[in-house]
Write a structure and sequence with these properties.
CATH class of the largest domain: Alpha Beta
Shape: elongated
Strand order of the largest sheet: 1-23-2-20-19-3-6-8-7-18
Number of strands: 28
Oligomer: single chain
CATH topology of the largest domain: Rossmann fold
Distance between the termini: 44 Å
């Protein structure tokens, strides 16, 4: 089934000629259907950047990694520019369950733009801050975001979900771009969360106290919205004032859709007052007439069905003409009211009340006893979370979360200070509680979470916390460039430090319960093309091999199945895979690259035996002069280019040398 999206936008002729067959078909299908499109200066250029950006060689940095081999293989922190990182994560495309991210809001202090990116997204410059008085600041922000949104779309699985934070400054622009790329039909919700609980003098007209989370599915037909876990506070609302052995709470005795259930619109006579009760307009009684009689007679009173001249009354409730309503009899007392009232009062004073009851004073409208054991083991995420019990999930639409349910920005900043100390420099941080809820609703317990704007690492912290709390096994990939202009990086100086403290419990404010978990820390380095690969020294080529490695039999890629082995002088072994098979690199630098021949083969076999590896050898080399059934050969640079998702013919020599990065 074709996903309901509008991914490409309007392409020019030269752009069409660059598309693959699959991309061209996707574009044609899009043109057949109507969609939403946003126009802004530089859009055509921005649209092409996602296809121009090139992957990078990534180098593992042990100092900022954490955990044992298994833990490091599960999670990844990438230090580098996020557009380049998404291009490097080629093998993860289509595998992400949820993207949870917090991009720059374009406040005048948080967003950099490099004009050279419009021609070359691989340019190493970080750009200048875009001030809030720049007349082109909105178009610059959209040119920055559009290619990233398109790559985020590619990263998601067919049932994947994007949750992206934003405030009022770019809310409408972001929503229009998401409608274009994902398709408006795939918009699941616009969540409105309370970031502060006191007025702020930040606007001359209305104080801003809320921000937004836009929720889009890659394909809403496959996306799943989960219930949230119930809390003790929710369960404590269920009592037993009548001595019922099962805790319960009062609920509405009515439900919707009267046109579809006309026989469930009828009169009920109260055994306490004799008053006739009908459902409210547009509703029906929530139980069938057969069940209703049993609940009413539970008061020790006899009832009979009796015709009343009330067709017009019932028609008004349903919203149809009098001639359209069926003949439905009312539930009337079959004995005098005084006798019925006496019997009903005895039951009310001495026994658990029936499920249809009439209020604590016994003079109200019919109500329904909702038992705790019948309530779903979860909470529907809609409106304010005090409305915690529903029979069926409700459409999310546009919803509001007050700060007790989602946390607020000051809470997030305080949480970060408690973890790493008060010199982190972040004034506004998303509260963990907000991210907990989003992950619980839209990421399965074993899902993969991706955050291309990782900042201080709230997403990773939330994943570690939920895994520890519920025994889940969610994984994360976080990307953060940080502030290289200050000689530091959020990825190293803040993000990795925060995750380490959360994992170990070593908080700045005092020891806390360790959350466990681990991650590998990767630094993006040189861009990848044939010329760059062939000019690499051995250490850089080793990084390229491990970063690009893809096991086509198991589907494991991006180095996730490789464990680096410290290199020794005059050896070829660089890593082992998940099957305990060795990965060997026959490469001594650009000026001297030996070929794989029989002599090298013998050395490879000896190295594998010394390490206790299986007798199957994965060999990377420029040329192969020895054939053997136990050797899997990977030609340099072609195989590395292919495993990075690049074309050997078009991406081989198309980037000028940029020097050492």
């Amino acid at each position: 089934m074709t996903s309901k999206t509008s991914f490409w936008g309007r392409l020019q002729r030269d752009e069409l000629e660059q598309l693959s067959r699959e991309e061209l078909l996707a574009y044609i299908y899009q043109e057949i259907e109507e969609g939403i499109s946003i126009s802004f200066a530089g859009k055509n250029t921005a649209r092409q950047l996602a296809r121009k950006v090139q992957p990078r060689v990534s180098k593992s940095v042990a100092k900022y990694s954490h955990g044992d081999e298994e833990d490091q293989a599960r999670n990844t922190v990438i230090e580098g520019e996020n557009l380049q990182a998404m291009a490097t994560l080629y093998r993860e495309r289509g595998k992400v369950n949820m993207i949870l991210t917090d991009p720059p809001y374009n406040t005048g202090r948080d967003f950099r733009y490099n004009d050279r990116w419009e021609d070359d997204p691989n340019d190493a410059g970080i750009g200048e801050f875009v001030p809030d008085d720049d007349p082109a600041r909105h178009t610059k922000w959209m040119r920055f975001m559009l290619p990233r949104i398109r790559l985020m779309h590619e990263m998601l699985k067919e049932d994947g979900v994007l949750a992206i934070c934003i405030d009022h400054r770019e809310l409408f622009h972001l929503g229009q771009m998401l409608d274009e790329v994902f398709g408006a039909v795939n918009r699941l919700a616009i969540l409105n969360w309370q970031k502060s609980y006191s007025p702020r003098a930040d606007n001359s007209h209305v104080s801003t106290a809320t921000e937004y989370v836009l929720i889009y599915a890659k394909n809403e037909e496959f996306a799943k919205t989960n219930l949230l876990p119930r809390t003790e506070e929710m369960d404590d609302r269920y009592k037993s004032p009548d001595g019922d052995p099962h805790p319960w709470k009062a609920s509405d005795a009515q439900a919707g859709k009267p046109r579809e259930n006309m026989t469930m619109v009828y009169a009920i006579q109260s055994p306490f007052t004799g008053e006739l009760h009908y459902p409210k307009a547009g509703t029906v009684w929530r139980v069938t007439p057969k069940d209703m009689q049993g609940y009413l007679e539970g008061w020790g009173v006899k009832y009979e069905r009796r015709e009343l001249d009330d067709a017009q009354r019932r028609a008004d409730i349903i919203g149809v003409g009098e001639d359209e309503v069926p003949n439905v009899k009312a539930f009337m007392l079959a004995e005098p009211l005084d006798e019925a009232k006496q019997k009903a009062n005895i039951v009310a004073d001495t026994k658990p009340w029936p499920r249809i009851w009439f209020g604590k004073r016994r003079t109200g409208r019919p109500q329904w006893k909702r038992y705790l054991h019948e309530v779903k083991q979860g909470v529907v995420p809609t409106t304010y979370w005090a409305d915690d019990d529903y029979d069926v999930p409700l459409a999310l639409g546009s919803t509001s979360w007050a700060h007790p349910e989602s946390g607020h920005s000051q809470t997030g900043a305080d949480e970060l200070t408690a973890l790493v100390g008060d010199d982190h420099g972040f004034k506004t941080v998303k509260p963990l509680k907000l991210f907990y809820k989003l992950l619980q609703i839209w990421c399965p317990p074993d899902g993969l979470v991706f955050d291309p704007f990782a900042g201080s690492g709230t997403t990773g912290h939330a994943v570690l916390h939920l895994n520890a709390e519920s025994g889940a096994s969610r994984r994360f990939i976080l990307v953060e460039q940080g502030r290289p202009d200050r000689g530091d990086s959020y990825a190293r100086g803040l993000l990795a430090d925060r995750l380490r403290r959360a994992a170990t419990g070593d908080w700045a404010a005092g020891q806390q319960k360790p959350l466990g978990g681990g991650w590998s820390f990767l630094h993006l380095r040189k861009r990848v093309d044939a010329q760059a690969l062939l000019s690499m020294e051995r250490e850089d080529m080793t990084d390229a091999v491990i970063a690009s490695y893809f096991d086509r039999d198991s589907g494991a890629g991006q180095g996730g199945a490789l464990v680096r082995i410290p290199s020794q002088p005059d050896t070829y072994l660089v890593a082992r895979n998940a099957y305990n098979e060795g990965v060997f690199l026959v490469w001594d630098g650009a000026d001297a690259s030996p070929v794989f021949d029989e002599e090298v083969y013998d050395a490879v076999v000896d190295e594998a035996k010394k390490e206790g590896l299986a007798p199957r050898y994965h060999v990377y080399a420029r040329f192969n002069l020895h054939q053997s059934s136990d050797v899997v050969f990977y030609q340099i640079p072609n195989r590395i280019l292919l495993d990075f998702g690049l074309s050997v013919t078009t991406d081989a020599y198309n980037v000028a040398d940029e020097g050492d990065e």
